[in-house]
# Entry
Amino acid sequence: MNPDSRSVIFKAEGVTKRFGNVVAVDKVDYQLYENEVAGILGSNGAGKTTFFNLLTGYFIPDEGKILYKGQDVTRMTPQERVSLGMMRTFQLTSTFDNLTVIDNLVLSFFRAHKKSSLWNLLFNTCKQHRKDEKILAALETFDLEKVSDRLVKNLSLGEKRRMEIAMAILAEPKVLLLDEPLAGLAESEIQGVLDVLRKQIGKQTILIVEHKISHVQDFLQRLIVMHEGRIIAEGGFECLQHPEVRKSYWQIDPATEASGTAEAAS
Ligand SMILES: Nc1ncnc2c1ncn2[C@@H]1O[C@H](COP(=O)(O)OP(=O)(O)OP(=O)(O)O)[C@@H](O)[C@H]1O
Ligand SMILES: [Mg+2]
# Structure
């Protein structure tokens, strides 16, 4: 589908963020379309995480605007943006490491959907809702059935990452922003996380920052490459062949470069 025929969910207009003399994000214009799975690539220090932080409200830009569904959210707090439907994993998803997996899922669902206090949720809601359809479906989708009664502190990193993504998705966000979801995972755990992400394709808008390009290239529909705070290429994976990308993108492996892929060691 031509992305231009879909509605824009996020728009950045001339967004700039400086830290002292460093221009971390430099006049970035960007559009994210509804229900697409898009990626941000770029070398270390390119400005990817800072750009995420601007989209999610952790930083306020020095210049420019951020629009969410046409609404100016430039100065809104992260919590206000979450209530509009954005969700960022690994920062906003707080896990309760001394509770079980299933109770963490219940809490995430009910915190997002009911205005009940956390105290009330912890003591009343968990028990009542362990068998709810949505919770059981999430355990199955994210391959967490076998560990549903395990305390989170005893999970492997791959299991915990799947649970974090399940928690984010149970909150039914309009946009899921994932900053390096595969970071720190063993090769054997990466497939499990990719499998759960693949199940979300077409169901919601996903924006992913990832260094392990070869792992995500089969499901990213569009990508941008950042360098020194600017977007230097945009499009499909062919944009990795763009001369500026080849020049700036760090550690391009000559063996994979020829086939249009690059793997940055993270
Ligand atoms: N809180 C901060 N204070 C000062 N400088 C910062 C801060 N956050 C980022 N920077 C600087 O801004 C630039 C962009 O950093 P950013 O973390 O956005 O890059 P990145 O593309 O996410 O890199 P990585 O791939 O290493 O995660 C870097 O020069 C970094 O040192
Ligand atoms: Mg980063």
